[in-house]
Amino acid sequence: MKGDCVNNLNGEHPNRKNQNAKERQLDEYRVNNFGTQMTTNQSTKVSGDENSLKADVRGPSLLEDFHLREKITHFDHERIPERVVHARGYAAHGEFVLHKCMKKYTSAKFLQDVGKKTPLFTRFSNVAGSKGSFDTARDVRGFAVKFYTEEGNYDLVGNNIPIFFIQDAIKFPDLIHATKPEPHNEIPQAATAHDTFWDFVANNQESAHMIMWLMSDRSIPTNFRKMEGFGVHTFRLVNDDGVAHFVKFHWKPKLGMHSLVWDEAQKISGADPDFQRRDLWESIKAGNFAEYDLGVQLIREEDEFMFDFDILDATKLWPEEIVPVELIGTMTLNRNIDNVFAETEQVAFHPGNVVPGIDFTNDPLLQGRLFSYLDTQLLRLGGPNFAEIPINRPVCPFHNNQRDGFSRQRIDVGQVSYHKNSLADNTPSPTPVEKGGYGHYQEKVEGHVIRANSPSFEDHFSQARLFWNSMAPYEKQHIIDAFSFEVGKVQSQSVRQQVVDMFCHVDSGLSEAIATAVGVKRAQCTPSDVTASSPALSMKNIIFVPETLKVAILLGKGFDSAVIGNTVRSLRNAGVTVDIVSTTLGPVQSASGRTATANQTFITVSPVLYDSILAGGGTSENQAEFDSHLQNYIEEAWKHYKPIAFTLNGSRYISKTSVQEGPGIIVEKNERDFNNAYINALAKQRFWDRNIFE
């Protein structure tokens, strides 16, 4: 080796030569797309990349669109074996009970008989992050439900936000490429606070409405049990007479809809990256089952064009004040999974899994999903037989002439594997529509084959403005703060300016606040003139109950056992979960000699994991350390707007912290009033009028 070095003092080291050869080899495969013309993988020049090929501007997407098929197929197969999107998920088993007969609207049997129970499996997920990311990222949450009906599996595959970023599925690969970690450095994980995402937003302004939701508290839900779910798309319900209604599906949580504070969400991600999945697991294990009411919005076929928005546009919602949500049944998640891989990871959802009485519309985003989901499973689950995996099997038997393929589990007997046949008496045979066979809605379609969008899809700001108008003042401030953080992380000044210019069309005050925060010029534009609001969009108009909230009671030696004992009983009677937190695990002795058992310590659990803090006070061998822990817990609850309770013994910490007495601050004066006031404060959950900066 020494000789090699000496002989090459005036030349190039052999290893360096090999390295340079490898670099030259790699250069042949490197492609910089900047400034080039777009083509397919077959080098056919692409004339349009914004819209899929349709039969007229509002007609169905066409399978002959080779560019759509190539683009989505390539996207669907980009990751092995993790889901490209919705990779980080958690699930549970449950049942759906119908409360209202829907026979007038649909022939679907599981929606016919009041009281009918249908087993189901529900998976919640984050969209952007990898499987190994964290739960509390600012992100859209997936909300997918597989109903195991007597007519086959029906999958309602949606999100916790009722709209989406784009209008046409052909742009979905672009959206996710922009959202994911940037390819040159694979940063950042599970976050949209970076250049490529906001560059996509500014150059695809149909996303404006969705971005308003994403920057709102809706995108950081407290947990899966306290977030809404939506089918997103417009579907059809079709009854026995062939009469159809347009429908949107909603899931309304029984516990109301609640969210985290951004600072709290970031701290939780470090204290417990599994915060939301742990909550679902522990709640079901404790018997606090997650419950959601299923609601529908219905529009008659003849009323399709009576609104100032296109009902097939996935970037638009149907305001509940215009089209009310009718509750028809309840989903209860009551059983935890047995194996994450076998169930949560192998479950295969597909919006094309429908039963008679439920059909599709010409929503171009939905049309692309009908292709994409099935195509994705072929790679991710190893071939066409993924329906035979236990979690995906329907509860009713299935019969067809499909054979072989990877991972075939069923053993078919007999010599016939085709249709029509005489050797097996022409079986399995189709079922006529009038006897329960699936019949597609016979919609009339006509028009020119065209790659374009309907002009009715061109309004991108009216509903974004409607959302802004509907927010409470504190919600508006949270949106401004979210924009300031996200856009403030963008390195490109040009992109920051484009975002400010874009959201001027929503609200000039919002745009100016963002501009100030991110250091660019104020925009000059005419904002949307929409003055209407929709109370259903504000999270201030939700259910407030104390059930299943989690309280940390902070205790040291010498606490008042009578007060704490009665308070614990009152809290548990109200459905609240209680942890006793102290310096060490085990018994903590009160002034009367009775003990409470600490099941958490100050160093094993974080204050941000609780919905409220009760300061019980007391003493410790290291009083300074004990006081420091209590003050930290109290300060965290204070600045996250949570209710805080103080026993008489614990009230001495008020003066040692930022706490100011007022709403949400409960101080013991007499026992009964103390407990009632505390439970009422818990139900409210946040006190947004608190000035945490004084």
Automatic annotation (TrEMBL):
<dbReference type="InterPro" id="IPR018028">
    <property type="entry name" value="Catalase"/>
</dbReference>
<dbReference type="InterPro" id="IPR029062">
    <property type="entry name" value="Class_I_gatase-like"/>
</dbReference>
<comment type="similarity">
    <text>Belongs to the catalase family. HPII subfamily.</text>
</comment>
<feature type="region of interest" description="Disordered">
    <location>
        <begin position="1"/>
        <end position="25"/>
    </location>
</feature>
<keyword id="KW-0560">Oxidoreductase</keyword>
<comment type="function">
    <text>Decomposes hydrogen peroxide into water and oxygen; serves to protect cells from the toxic effects of hydrogen peroxide.</text>
</comment>
<protein>
    <recommendedName>
        <fullName>Catalase</fullName>
        <ecNumber>1.11.1.6</ecNumber>
    </recommendedName>
</protein>
<dbReference type="InterPro" id="IPR010582">
    <property type="entry name" value="Catalase_immune_responsive"/>
</dbReference>
<keyword id="KW-0376">Hydrogen peroxide</keyword>
<dbReference type="Pfam" id="PF00199">
    <property type="entry name" value="Catalase"/>
</dbReference>
<dbReference type="GO" id="GO:0004096">
    <property type="term" value="F:catalase activity"/>
</dbReference>
<keyword id="KW-0575">Peroxidase</keyword>
<keyword id="KW-0408">Iron</keyword>
<keyword id="KW-0349">Heme</keyword>
<dbReference type="InterPro" id="IPR002226">
    <property type="entry name" value="Catalase_haem_BS"/>
</dbReference>
<dbReference type="InterPro" id="IPR020835">
    <property type="entry name" value="Catalase_sf"/>
</dbReference>
<dbReference type="InterPro" id="IPR024712">
    <property type="entry name" value="Catalase_clade2"/>
</dbReference>
<dbReference type="Pfam" id="PF06628">
    <property type="entry name" value="Catalase-rel"/>
</dbReference>
<keyword id="KW-0479">Metal-binding</keyword>
<dbReference type="InterPro" id="IPR024708">
    <property type="entry name" value="Catalase_AS"/>
</dbReference>
<dbReference type="InterPro" id="IPR011614">
    <property type="entry name" value="Catalase_core"/>
</dbReference>
<dbReference type="InterPro" id="IPR041399">
    <property type="entry name" value="Catalase_large_C"/>
</dbReference>
<dbReference type="Pfam" id="PF18011">
    <property type="entry name" value="Catalase_C"/>
</dbReference>
<dbReference type="InterPro" id="IPR043156">
    <property type="entry name" value="Catalase_clade2_helical"/>
</dbReference>
<feature type="domain" description="Catalase core">
    <location>
        <begin position="39"/>
        <end position="427"/>
    </location>
</feature>
